[in-house]
Amino acid sequence: MGLKVLVTGSSGLIGSEAVAFYDGAGHDVTGVDNNMRAEFFGTAGDTTWNLERLKRSTTRFTHRDLDIRDREALFALFREQAFELVVHCAAQPSHDKARDIPLTDFEVNAVGTVNLLEATRLHCPDAVFLHMSTNKVYGDAPNELPLVETETRFDYARPQDFHGIAEDFRIDRTLHSLFGASKTAADIMAQEYGRYFGLRVGVFRGGCLTGPAHSGVELHGFLNFLVKAAVAGDTYTVFGYKGKQVRDNIHSSDVIQAFEAFRAAPRPGEVYNLGGGRENSVSVLEAIARIEGLTGRRVKWRYDEHNRVGDHICYVSDLRKLRSHYPGWNVTRSLDDILVELVESESRRLAAL
Ligand SMILES: NC(=O)c1ccc[n+]([C@@H]2O[C@H](COP(=O)([O-])OP(=O)(O)OC[C@H]3O[C@@H](n4cnc5c(N)ncnc54)[C@H](O)[C@@H]3O)[C@@H](O)[C@H]2O)c1
Question: Is the pTM higher than 0.90?
């Protein structure tokens, strides 16, 4: 018998990957998404195309146009269906956007998460609850680490930092951005429902998550948006740090495999950093060069010397805790695999317009 699965943010990058995976594995998937990404980012953020794609390609998926801030509607859904797995991916996901909408950002990210945790506790306390958090819970504290500057990137200077940022890195007394702060509130509440109430909650602090299902926009979805601009011949803006800021990139399917490892053997209240790790790390300058190598065309870009407030200079997720708890899990898509797929899917999308 299949599981009853709830995916929030089901038309987004990670949510849609979760829907496709669990539907394909024969489970009953309910997806909740109100297309709020279009409200946050305008038409480029509209996720309708992705919802339509899911409807065409799945067999047991039902979509609900529901707002996770609407507690009554959410509780009614939980009364109707006894979920066994909750994959929580709905969010306001942008640091910069949060500055313009502090209350909405907090209501979606923090209160929306507590609504889901409480609905789970009241109606299906045995469910596994996967919470998608972010590396912005560490704020800009990673920028305090000693760095070296090479021709194309910043990197950690000390050997003990080689593997990147681990889960015991401090999360307070640091500049988070309002987004980072609302996500930290959600992260702590999710841990609390695991530790205090014993719910089977796993918290995953994402690095740069990517894949062709992203409705990439300038304010969110670094690699996806860069490839979009490169393929369309648009001009990409690099914000500060000489373009040498480093991100570690993970394909959405490897994110779902980490979820799946936790679902099969949950550890209530645990926190894991989840990114592409050192091997999938790249600076903006390096990413541009790699895309140029793949497309054979120059990427047009301009430099704005103002870095984004609180932006990480070098962020690599230390994956050793996740790998030690779940030895069957690993990053399977290399940076080049990811870039090739993004370039191909973006070229197809443009050709179809
Ligand atoms: N993409 C990244 O690089 C990245 C990095 C770190 C963490 N994360 C986290 O991963 C999670 C998923 O991110 P993503 O990249 O898939 O984002 P996404 O924007 O592609 O997907 C989120 C989805 O949630 C929906 N949504 C927003 N508010 C909602 C609401 N009130 N009710 C119902 N649905 C709502 C949006 O319409 C969107 O489809 C988020 O929690 C995000 O903070 C993402």
Answer: yes
